[in-house]
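ok posting inputs for the acetyl coenzyme *A job
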Amino acid sequence: MSSSILRTSRTKPVWSALARARFSSTAPKNTTLKERLAELIPVELENVKRVRAEHGKKAFGPVIVDQLYGGMRGLPALIWDGSVLDADEGIRFRGKTIPECQELLPKAPGGAEPLPEGLFWLLVTGEIPTQEQVTELSKDWAARSAIPEFVEEILDRCPPTLHPMSQFSLAVTALNHDSAFAKAYQDGVSKKEYWGPTFEDSMDLIAKLPNIAGRIYNNVFGKGKLAAIDPAKDYSHNLSTLLGFGDNTAFVELMRLYITIHSDHEGGNVSAHTGKLVGSALSDPFLAFAASLNGLAGPLHGLANQEVLLWLSKMQSKIGENASDEAVKEYVWATLKGGQVVPGYGHAVLRKTDPRYTAQREFALKHLPEDPLFKLVGQIYNIVPDILLEAGKAKNPWPNVDAHSGALLTHYGLTQMQFYTVLFGVSRAFGVTAQLIWDRALGAPLERPKSYSTAAIEKMFKDKS
Ligand SMILES: CC(=O)SCCNC(=O)CCNC(=O)[C@H](O)C(C)(C)COP(=O)(O)OP(=O)(O)OC[C@H]1O[C@@H](n2cnc3c(N)ncnc32)[C@H](O)[C@@H]1OP(=O)(O)O
Ligand SMILES: O=C([O-])CC(=O)C(=O)O
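and the output
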């Protein structure tokens, strides 16, 4: 932020606010999230206009043919300020590392982990909210949490054999019935006002996810009558209660950490990018996020947390519990020789251990250091990277977030691994909706990159080699 901008007298108060936001200072008191957004949006619109005027025609680096065939790795293609991923350091949410978020974001009374309500505020504004602002968000989400009866019926009619992620996606798609954005669009809302109903839909969507997740869990895994949302409790506490774990303080803390760290992973990952892409067609946040969920449900992305537990269970039944390092090594090699990936290891961008893995490991060291599955996860950490390096294919031999989460959930009795990605999805809604709000606020256009045929590539370089 240049000092000349800060000195401009007419805009000074607003630019100062933005400067504060960009440096992730604390939010001004006595303002709601929506009011704060309304202040920040015109400032950011000016900022983007300035950046485009100054740099809009500059080249960003070469595009090579391998990137077209190789899943666009490293292709600079998207803008998202909410979080940025460094290959070695891992994720920062609005410039804050996970340990910094753990330190700075408001906590529940007696709690040590950050409240995801605060993380959402941070993702949306770049500011650390006050305790009161976070409490207001908890209350607002509790007030919006009921799901329409017909959505309950859709879930109740799903066969328990339908994967929980498919049920989740169905329910979220159906919420589009009451979309404020879809209605406003039909009523002829001006482009400048898109962000308002997008914000309302986003808040509704996040608020309704505990009821959807709880109903799916209850229907599929038969835990009896579904509990009700308590307006005096925070989001993670309510989610835990609906899953039947609300009385377990450590589980509630785990949910606070879990939802915070799984929320966003810059803009290019499959779920975030899918939400942005679908949203760019002005599909409302429910439709856009349902598409995100369908991407998250893939085994190379969010479903990897389920796959890790499956793989560990199969390992235990094959080589027994407390197996030797040699036996574990043999099992890992057999996985690779069978043409399968080692779930929970490797990453498209990261080149070091995922700090989300480390945060979960630290939680385990504090709350469940003697857990046998946690010990196995640790044993594997000492074995797999060397094997992946020796196998010589994976660019990143280190664990990602999914290598750890299932062991923690299992410890507390949430053993139904098919459900794990639903929890990931609840969290990912925070990042996807924050991005949708800003995309509509900044007038992000329809996404439509160019595709090429192999023949066209050949022709392009025919006389140049
Ligand atoms: C929340 C998340 O989405 S985190 C990721 C969750 N997914 C997993 O944990 C699944 C296991 N990991 C993987 O499949 C990969 O590492 C991915 C999908 C995450 C990243 O894929 P890429 O960016 O293509 O990885 P990379 O460039 O290192 O791949 C090169 C080769 O190594 C292989 N490789 C990468 N990771 C692994 C692994 N964990 N086990 C075995 N092989 C691997 C790839 O399959 C690829 O093989 P190929 O040349 O035969 O196609
Ligand atoms: O960044 C990625 O590609 C995958 C990932 O870890 C996430 O989305 O959380």
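notes: The mean pLDDT is 94. Residues 265, 269, 348-349, 400-401 surround oxaloacetate ion (ligand 2) (CB under 6 Å).
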